[in-house]
Design brief:
single chain; five-stranded mixed sheet; Glycosyltransferase; 48% helix; alpha+beta; Glutaredoxin; globular; 4 domains; four-stranded mixed sheet; 19 strands; 730 residues
């Protein structure tokens, strides 16, 4: 829960069992023998696939998964619903489970007065989005675990986040709340139901407001100025603690730099450097933790999410293409290596996350003491490593009162040239020695109890990872990254579809299930467009167009523009949410608008561009209030206002002259440029997808580049250097 300091978790979690140790999950044979309610040892969650729900399968609370059975029971027994929403790697969800849901006293109250439902927010983002909007409206903030009490017909009348078992320091506890709300349901029913109706009416009224403001190039400047005003000139990033990476902020600033704003790039570079050197970056195993609890990127919340890895890899890739500074490529490759090692399933899909907790303590897997370093590296090398990576006797991972714990989070205490000067060791030699030391410590760390791994495969997060690997393949000339992206795309398109060909949300333990939402479609289309840009195989463009059309048919708001999170034929909730805010994850609407603009230029069909404009216009009322909170939408707007360009290379895919022209394109940062490969012949798949390429054939048998910018085309060229001049605007 964001409102509480995560450093508190370093001590509080000491009495918690890690997720994988909380109880035996029944085998398939055992499940077959259980009654529908799970019997005396389990509850109904034992039959679920979600790792989060399975973590609660042995709670004494008689949990239901979200579904008709729970609501029918609540209606029949005239009980309110107690809804708890979280996710498997959520630390405070674990805390509330241990304090309350595993507690016999609390469970007795919940079972007596409520029908209790558990929801994995990552499996049901549509449910989460609706009730999170309620929680934020009622309390002024949100977070997980989320707690909502509502009528049997799903209308909320109470909402909050984490609650301890008993009240403390003004925060009510479960033992006080549960009887109070139950009594109100019995004795003040008219007032409770009236309150719920007012909440629903207010939420519907708020959700109906849309559009009304112009989006133009001036809004890009406003977004930049807002970010600049919040920029932390000492530590990078925006604002104070806690500090979130928000990669789309950085990618937006890189596009502002490309527009000629000279003061944009320093903001990006300082932020990327500080994040890479900090404790939020896993200095041994690669990848990034969720966010930093302090201003200096030192003390992280230790969970690792697939989406953070994908989005940060994209930001570091962009920075490398812009600056060609080796450290940015190193970090991007480090992130992707972590994902391949820890989050890539044998089947080719990407797993979701790793927990913050291990061995009963948050961050225990990642922290070190000087004696532990010496035991692995020896006293002399251990001392050097401790100096470089900030390990000392008092530690830097404080408890909730700021007292030293003796444990240290690894971080680079300075940049490498300064470290070389301070140690008197030549930089190449120092880097070599520290790389060897990190390898030894990594091997030693692997013997520790690992954090719990959430092994479900989510369609939307896989779309992001496909985009990251495909983009890296182009940027770094890494065909192996393209193969990883290709295999993941095949997995999603094969395994995460129903018998009608529609996308599904989640795959786990051989089962694909749950309805896909907007983000699943939009993020996967993004991944496929990046894969097309890398492999230039028209198949991926065709798949992207098919999914985009299905998304439009099922999710588009035809009256007001933009897209709803849930499908028109999906489960009816009291509010059909539509999200534009670009938070830790960019919104599905922002990505959909970006995709539509790319598709317009790739196919020559202006209907895609018009749909993108309507999507952005639908969110304009919110976006224009604070454009820096919508930086993925700003990326779409950046493409829309241009200048944008198309490059069609006509040539044999494997021919060297074709590759030479492609290298010229890929050597540059061209965020508003699309590329097509027009293979020889009059009956090639691309011609059906992009008919305008029909006449764009090779000149005298040589690979030929056709370049157009803002609807003006230049003379075709077979010379890579001449193409480079066109790309550079010369």
């Amino acid at each position: 829960m964001r409102a509480l300091p995560i450093s508190f978790a370093l001590t509080l979690s000491s009495f918690l069992a890690p997720a994988q140790e909380r109880g035996h999950v029944p085998t398939a044979e055992e499940l077959a023998k259980l009654p529908p309610d799970g019997g005396p040892e389990f509850n109904r969650l034992a039959f679920e696939k979600s790792p989060y729900l399975l973590q609660h399968a042995r709670n004494p609370v008689k949990w239901f998964p979200w579904g008709p059975a729970a609501f029918e029971k609540a209606s029949k027994e005239d009980k309110p619903i107690f809804l708890s929403i979280g996710y498997s790697t959520c630390h405070w969800c674990h805390v509330m489970e241990h304090e309350s849901f595993e507690d016999a006293e609390v469970a007795a109250l919940m079972n007596a007065h409520y029908v209790c439902i558990k929801v994995d927010r990552e499996e049901r983002p549509d449910v989460d989005q609706v009730y999170m909007s309620v929680t934020q409206a009622m309390t002024g903030s949100g977070g997980w675990p989320m707690t909502v009490v509502m009528t049997p017909d799903k209308k909320p009348f109470f909402a909050g986040t984490y609650f301890p078992k008993r009240g403390d320091q003004g925060r009510p506890g479960m033992m006080e709340l549960l009887p109070r709300l139950a009594e109100a349901w019995k004795t003040e029913r008219q007032g409770v139901v009236g309150h719920a109706e007012k909440i629903v009416a207010a939420m519907r009224e708020s959700g109906a407001k849309t559009g009304g403001a112009a989006l133009d190039v001036a809004l890009l400047e406003r977004a930049f100025l807002e970010l600049e005003a919040r920029f932390d000139a000492r530590e990078g990033g925006f604002g104070g603690a806690p500090k979130f990476p928000t990669p789309h902020n950085l990618r937006f600033l890189l596009r502002e730099h490309a527009r000629g704003r000279s003061n944009a790039l320093p903001l990006v570079e300082l932020t990327l450097a500080k994040m890479a050197r900090g404790g939020m970056h896993d200095q041994l195993g690669g990848g990034f933790h969720r966010y930093s609890t302090d201003r200096a990127w030192l003390v992280p919340h230790f969970e690792k999410m697939l989406y953070d890895q994908a989005l940060l890899a994209l930001a570091y890739q962009d920075a490398w293409v812009v600056t060609r500074k080796a450290e940015y490529r190193e970090v991007a490759e480090d992130v992707l290596a972590y994902v391949q090692r820890e989050l890539l399933s044998p089947e080719g899909g990407f797993l979701s996350a790793e927990d913050a907790d291990s061995a009963g303590e948050e961050g225990q897997f990642y922290v070190w003491t000087p004696p532990e370093l010496d035991g692995v590296l020896g006293a002399e090398e251990g001392a050097v490593f401790a100096r470089i990576f900030g390990v000392h006797a008092s530690g830097n991972a404080p408890d909730h009162e700021g007292r030293p714990t003796g444990k240290s989070i690894l971080h680079l205490t300075a940049d490498w040239p300064e470290l070389a000067r301070s140690t008197g060791i030549a930089e190449p030699e120092l880097r070599k020695r520290m790389a060897l030391a990190r390898g030894k410590l990594f091997d030693a760390r692997e013997k520790r109890v690992r954090p719990f791994k959430d092994d479900k495969v989510l369609t939307d997060w896989n779309g992001l990872a496909i985009a990251a690997f495909a983009s890296a393949a182009r940027a770094f000339d890494r065909p192996d990254h393209a193969r990883t992206a290709h295999r993941a795309a095949e997995f999603v398109l094969t395994r995460l579809r129903d018998d009608k060909g529609r996308l599904l949300k989640r795959y786990r333990a051989g089962e694909a299930a749950l309805p896909a939402v907007l983000d699943d479609y939009a993020f996967l289309v993004w991944g496929l467009l990046e894969l097309h840009a890398t492999e230039l195989d028209p198949r991926w463009l065709a798949e992207a167009l098919r999914l985009d059309a299905e998304m439009t048919a099922r999710f588009a708001d035809t009256a007001n523009g933009g897209y709803f999170l849930s499908a028109a034929d999906g489960e009816a909730l009291f509010l059909r949410g539509k999200e534009f805010y670009d938070g830790a994850l960019p919104s599905g609407n922002s990505i959909a608008a970006s995709n539509s603009l790319r598709l317009a230029h790739l196919t020559g069909d202006p209907a895609h561009a018009e749909r993108a404009r309507k999507t952005l216009a639908a969110g304009s009322r919110e976006i224009t209030r604070s454009p820096s909170a919508f930086t993925q939408a700003m990326l779409a707007l950046d493409f829309e206002v241009g200048p944008s360009s198309e490059v069609v290379i006509s040539g044999a895919p494997e021919a060297e002259d074709t590759r030479a022209l492609l290298r010229e394109v890929r050597a540059r940062f061209l965020p508003r440029t699309v590329v097509l490969l027009r293979a020889p012949g009059d009956d090639v798949p691309l011609l059906k997808l992009a008919p305008f390429t029909k006449e764009l054939t090779r000149l005298d048998g040589h690979a030929t580049a056709y370049f157009c910018r803002d609807f003006t085309c230049q003379a075709p060229t077979i010379d890579p250097a001449a193409l480079g001049k066109l790309l550079d605007g010369r």
